[in-house]
Amino acid sequence: MKLNYLFPNKYKKIGWLILIPSAIIGMITLVLDLEPNYLDFNVPAIFINDAFGDKGVVGNVKNNVLNEILGVLILLSSLLVAFSKEKLEDEYISKIRLESLVWAVYFNYAILLILFLFVFELSFLWVMIFNMFTILLFFIIRFNWQISKLKRSISYEE
């Protein structure tokens, strides 16, 4: 079965090399609330709303771009890790990939449903921000866990 929607296997390594440091730096900046001044830039923006109530549709805004850089790196590297072929990609791996993706979507939305009911106001914004990353994260964890179980069972049978 030919899978045209997957990246070549070599991109998985590149994805991991970008994902791990980006996630670590992202968590550190989140926990310590770090925003270095040298990353403050005037950037184009849509739907501007500053603290004084001035609104605009399109314009420029001064913003620290660290969060945007880390978010883009985490999203792109997660896509590379999640959707790169395995060294030996067969129908069973495809089945595991599909099941893991479906499981990740169900699990993610079950958590989101619970959080919809119990988290409010500005905290809910954080829930939605993290929700952008969690489907891919849950998929990567479940898929790799299933693949490692498969490899253990194969080595056990030998």
How does this structure look, described?
The protein has 158 residues and is an alpha+beta fold. The protein has 2 domains: 85 residues, no CATH class; 72 residues. 66% of the residues lie in helices and 13% in strands. The chain has 4 helices and 2 strands, in the order H-E-E-H-H-H. It has a two-stranded antiparallel sheet. Strand 1 and strand 2 form a beta hairpin. Helix 2 runs parallel beside helix 4 and helix 3 runs antiparallel to helix 4. The chain is elongated and about 65 Å long. The mean pLDDT is 90.
Helix/strand/pairing category: alpha+beta
- N-to-C CA distance: 26 Å
Strand order, main sheet: write it out.
1-2
Element-level helix/strand string: HEEHHH
Radius of gyration: 20 Å
Share of helical residues: 55-70%
Specify the biggest β-sheet.
2 strands, antiparallel
Report the portion of residues in β strands: 5-15%
Count the beta strands: 2
Number of helices: 4
Gross geometry: elongated
Low-confidence stretches: none
How many domain units? 2
What's the pLDDT, averaged over the residues?
90
Keywords: Membrane, Transmembrane, Transmembrane helix
Transmembrane segments: 14-32, 65-84, 96-118, 124-145
